[in-house]
Write a structure and sequence with these properties.
single chain, 444 residues, alpha+beta, Helix Hairpins, five-stranded mixed beta sheet, four-stranded antiparallel beta sheet, 11 helices, 28 strands, 34% helix, elongated
Length: 444
């Protein structure tokens, strides 16, 4: 952003985390700029109410803009709710509560009129005076000062939420009306350019992951000898394997354990509890302890993880996360794991870890997950059929994959890091623009 110039003169905003703002800008609380209210329309169907399309939490969380082509779910609402919460062009919707404080205050802009679409529960609808101001509000809420404000103002232990006062007290930097259109247009152009780069790099990562999984699948189903005699397993998702390999159910070579159930009052923040590994602690195929929950309670020794355990996300609100897994190392010692997680423990785990990262596991898991069942149970995992080579071949396959995947993993890491940097640049640009750190008037 070094090619952008600052404004000629600044003044103190009076808000510590905003700092100085252009001299001719105002700093105002959200309550003085727009109307806002929490929706109470949930996703249940009630007799005697009118059928509506519901813009729900995930629609807002995963989409920067709300448009008519989103797959809204069907629900019902009363006439009063329809009158209050039918979405209009220019409405800004934010997530107001979550189990994760970083998910608070995520905004989406309603980009077109949406008759019949109602704002759903766990969301706050913000309505400005005009569409240009709404675009500015949308970007301002995306900025780092706003996210810092929401983070501080969303108390909780296991669930976090924003009060009406916290939303209304949000400080905003407001440029004159004649500057808002040019400023928001320039933000849109720059973010679109960055988003296009992110899309290309994300697709490259998908291709790398497909190649990685294909290499793993070939190794754990065909072995390392291209001339070995094969046999048909009779299992669709496994296909042919070397003739001397066996096909076995996981329960015959390992144990599957479901994680710890704990109460909200068991959670502690003094750093003296037992760390509970959750889905968020699996990032990019690695153990990530940046975000931890600790509990003070009695934990069965069997539920304390061991080096070599395979930790699997077996239940999650996001179906895409079910099945993601890691093999635990020494850093996990002293930890337990949560009830939405499963640990597979056995003497062949080094080999089975790669089985869990092959297309076999994806295909097998998909058989059990339907519109009504969105989890992998202990029974499902225990009864999964897997190919098992002799132990010396297992060690050779594990060694070959460990060496062969290292360059792919390095490229994956490098590409992901470049995406992270682009996202940081995007957030920094939005923040600089809506707080007046850069002057975009001549760029428009």
């Amino acid at each position: 952003m070094s090619h952008y110039k600052p404004y000629p003169a600044y003044k103190d905003s009076g808000v510590e985390w905003i700092g100085p703002v252009p001299e001719h800008w105002d700093v105002m609380r959200l309550r003085h700029v727009a109307a806002f209210k929490n929706s109470n329309v949930d996703k249940k169907i009630y007799d005697g109410q009118e059928t509506v399309s519901l813009c729900n939490y995930t629609d807002v969380y995963y989409n920067e803009f709300i448009t008519s082509n989103l797959p809204f779910m069907q629900a019902t609402a009363s006439p009063a709710e329809i009158e209050q919460f039918t979405l209009k062009k220019g409405d800004v919707i934010i997530t107001k509560d979550s189990e994760d404080p970083s998910d608070i205050g995520i905004p989406a802009l309603v980009a077109e009129a949406l008759p019949g679409v109602v704002c759903g529960y766990h969301l706050t609808m913000i309505r400005g005076a005009d569409f240009v101001t709404a675009r500015l509000l949308h970007r301002a809420i995306q900025s780092r000062p706003t996210q810092a404000h929401f983070f501080v103002e969303a108390p909780g232990i296991t669930r976090y939420g924003l009060s009406q006062d916290a939303i209304g007290d949000l400080p905003l930097c407001i440029p004159p009306e004649d500057e808002r259109y040019a400023l928001t247009n320039q933000i849109d152009r720059e973010t679109a350019r960055i988003d296009a780069l992110i899309t290309k790099k994300t697709r490259f990562i998908e291709l790398l992951k497909e190649k990685r999984q294909a290499l793993i699948t070939h190794a754990v189903t065909k072995g390392l000898d291209p001339n070995v005699k094969m046999k048909d397993t009779g299992v669709e998702w496994i296909g042919e394997v070397p003739e001397h390999w066996t096909i076995t159910k996981l329960k015959h070579v390992s144990r599957a354990l479901i994680g710890l159930t704990y109460a909200p009052e068991d959670v502690v923040t003094d750093g003296k509890g037992i760390t509970v590994l959750r889905s968020s602690n699996i990032q990019g195929g690695q153990l990530d302890l940046a975000d931890i929950v600790q509990v003070r309670t009695v934990v069965d020794p069997e539920l304390m993880v061991r080096v070599g355990d395979i930790l699997i996300c077996s239940r999650n609100g996001s179906r895409a996360l079910i099945g993601k897994n890691i093999q635990l190392d020494e850093r996990s010692l002293g930890c337990t794991f949560g009830a939405f997680m499963t640990v597979v423990r056995g003497s062949f785990n080094d080999f089975l870890y790669y089985v869990f990262n092959s297309t076999m596991f994806d295909a097998n898991s998909a058989l059990y997950m339907t519109s009504t069942v969105n989890q992998l149970t202990i029974s499902m995992i225990a009864n999964m059929e897997v190919p098992l080579p002799p132990e010396d071949e297992q060690r050779a396959i594990v060694s070959r994959l460990g060496k062969g995947l290292s360059s792919l993993d390095a490229l994956l890491f490098k590409t992901q890091r470049s995406i992270d940097l682009l996202k940081e640049r995007r957030a920094a640009f939005i923040t600089a623009a809506v707080t007046g750190q850069i002057d975009l008037r001549e760029s428009a």
